[in-house]
């Protein structure tokens, strides 16, 4: 059952989120703070996912809930339906979805398209009416109450849906004056419990009561250790935000992102100049159509080696997070081959005092970066070697950090030019490179690069000062 995951939030379904399988997306985009955190929490999160499924199924079996909604990949359909049947429940397929962006596919092409899809199943006692998962004839509020929503959360969720929302955490993450976000609420999108409904506020007492009931049932089912982990998570400090449609939750152990909705009435600023908000402050948002979403997430993603605009922004956001310590120590940085300046913009948002520079060989992309970043962040044109030579004249004392994609750098001479001006070189792994090589260590080895021992991360890594043979 490890291939199945609970929907977030519980049904009823009444809106189409920008990312249909948000729980899967958030789980796939988890980046751990380091090797120790990964070793400890990656298996724990998998066991918590298994426990949450068992608890939810038991709630349905006992009649506490009329049904629940579970997603699975094609290969997990038989196991899911058999598990439901084994405890006297029925599994009824509702829909299939490719999602907004397919992240980290294991194969470049798959002969059977059905294997690319995720499948939603309603799980409940027979005879099972699939209509109970959608807006009910007796009203959305009544349907939400049947699925375990407290009265206060029912009203809030229904109003949010009526105003075009689909992500129940979006308004809380985007709230400028939010108090400390409880970890169970911020991480609810992972589908691990104990929060399984859309809460009305960050500190709803009825939601806490439902959470305690979830934990108690988990212990009754024998998941004592797993429930202890959930209680440990409850004490974590978390940082949560919604910026330009990217929802992000960060803890000391890991960080996760997903493509959220923008169903609020506030106006969203355009990406014309770098803004320097307070750390982690959410940007205002407004409804956007698909064309605007693509524009805001960045152009040129294919040339940069990414599968979608969201994938590019998500990966670059992860680079910034993975290199937090290096950025904190630095006073200057350059992105070699910066395209339209997205990575520099994300760095500027979190480290506004850094002196930032970009180089870009493509004249149109360089001009787009200048429009986006403004005159305060120079973007130098020409080949990498020419631009780096110009940068060395502009900054004779050198640059602290250089971010590079080795596949687009242009050979050993260009790498030597980067090393000549930068004290530390950070290698970026794109979708294209990681599809081929699977991880940063293998990627670096294939390119003839040596990484600093023990520091390779998911999508970025620092190069060792040792000689290399970039090809």
As laid out across the biggest beta sheet, the strand order is 11-10-9-12-13-14
Shape: elongated
- Helix/strand class: alpha/beta
User: What level of helicity do the residues show?
Assistant: 40-55%
Distance between the termini: 43 Å
Number of helices: 20
Strand content: 15-25%
| Low-pLDDT residue intervals, each spanning 5 or more residues | 100-110, 263-298
Q: Name the average pLDDT.
A: 81
Number of strands: 14
- Largest pleated sheet: 6 strands, mixed
Taking all Cα atoms into account, the compactness measure Rg is 23 Å
Characterise this structure.
The chain is 40% helix and 15% strand. By secondary structure, it is an alpha/beta fold. A 6-stranded mixed β-sheet has the order 11-10-9-12-13-14. Helix 12 packs across helix 14 and helix 16 packs parallel to helix 18. The chain is elongated and about 75 Å long. About 10% of the residues have low confidence.
Blueprint of the fold:
Blueprint lengths: L3 E3 L15 H7 L2 E2 L2 H27 L5 E7 L3 H10 L3 E8 L20 E7 L15 H7 L4 H12 L7 H4 L9 H4 L18 H16 L3 H11 L4 E5 L2 E5 L3 E6 L30 H8 L3 H4 L4 H14 L1 H6 L2 E5 L5 H9 L4 E5 L3 H11 L5 E2 L3 H11 L4 E6 L1 H4 L2 H10 E7 L2 H7 L2 H7 L13 E3 L9
Parallel strand pairs: 9-10, 9-12, 10-11, 12-13
Antiparallel strand pairs: 1-3, 2-8, 3-5, 4-5, 6-7, 7-8, 13-14
């Amino acid at each position: 059952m490890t291939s199945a995951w609970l929907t977030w939030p519980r049904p009823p379904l009444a809106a189409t989120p920008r990312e249909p399988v948000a729980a899967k997306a958030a789980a796939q985009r988890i980046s751990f703070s380091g090797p120790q955190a990964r070793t400890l929490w990656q298996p724990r999160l998998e066991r918590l996912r298994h426990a949450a499924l068992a608890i939810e199924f038991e709630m349905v079996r006992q009649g506490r809930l009329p049904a629940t909604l579970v997603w699975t990949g094609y290969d997990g359909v038989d196991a899911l339906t058999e598990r439901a049947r084994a405890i006297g429940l029925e599994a009824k397929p509702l829909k299939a979805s490719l999602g907004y962006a397919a992240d980290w596919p294991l194969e470049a092409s798959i002969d059977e398209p059905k294997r690319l899809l995720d499948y939603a199943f309603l799980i409940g006692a027979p005879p099972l009416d699939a209509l109970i998962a959608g807006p009910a004839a007796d009203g959305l509020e009544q349907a939400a109450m049947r699925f375990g929503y407290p009265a206060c959360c029912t009203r809030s969720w229904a109003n949010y849906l009526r105003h075009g929302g689909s992500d129940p955490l979006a308004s809380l993450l985007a709230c400028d004056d939010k108090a400390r976000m409880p970890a169970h609420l911020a991480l609810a999108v992972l589908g691990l419990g104990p929060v399984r409904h859309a809460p009305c506020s960050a500190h709803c007492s009825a939601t806490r009561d439902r959470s305690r009931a979830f934990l108690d049932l988990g212990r009754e089912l024998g998941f004592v250790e797993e429930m202890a982990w959930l209680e440990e998570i409850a004490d974590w400090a978390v940082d949560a935000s919604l910026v330009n449609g990217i929802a992000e939750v960060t803890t000391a152990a890991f960080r996760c992102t997903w493509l959220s909705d923008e169903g609020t009435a506030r106006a969203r600023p355009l990406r014309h100049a770098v803004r320097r908000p307070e750390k982690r402050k959410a940007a205002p948002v407004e409804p956007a159509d698909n064309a605007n979403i693509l524009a805001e997430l960045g152009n040129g993603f294919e040339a940069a080696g990414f599968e979608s605009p969201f994938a590019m922004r998500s990966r670059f956001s992860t680079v910034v997070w993975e290199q937090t310590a290096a950025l904190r120590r630095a006073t200057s940085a350059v992105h070699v081959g910066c395209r339209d300046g997205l990575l520099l913009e994300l760095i500027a948002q979190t480290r506004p005092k850094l002196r930032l520079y970009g180089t870009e060989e493509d004249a149109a992309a360089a001009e787009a970066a200048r429009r986006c970043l403004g005159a305060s962040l120079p973007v130098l044109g020409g080949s990498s070697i020419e631009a780096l030579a110009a940068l060395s004249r502009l900054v004779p004392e050198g640059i602290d950090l250089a971010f590079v994609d080795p596949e687009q750098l242009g050979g050993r001479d260009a790498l030597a030019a980067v090393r000549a001006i930068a004290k530390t070189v950070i290698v970026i792994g794109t979708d294209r490179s990681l599809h081929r090589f699977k991880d940063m260590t293998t990627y670096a080895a294939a390119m003839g690069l040596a990484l600093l021992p023990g520091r390779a991360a998911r999508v970025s890594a620092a190069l060792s000062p040792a000689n290399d043979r970039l090809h």
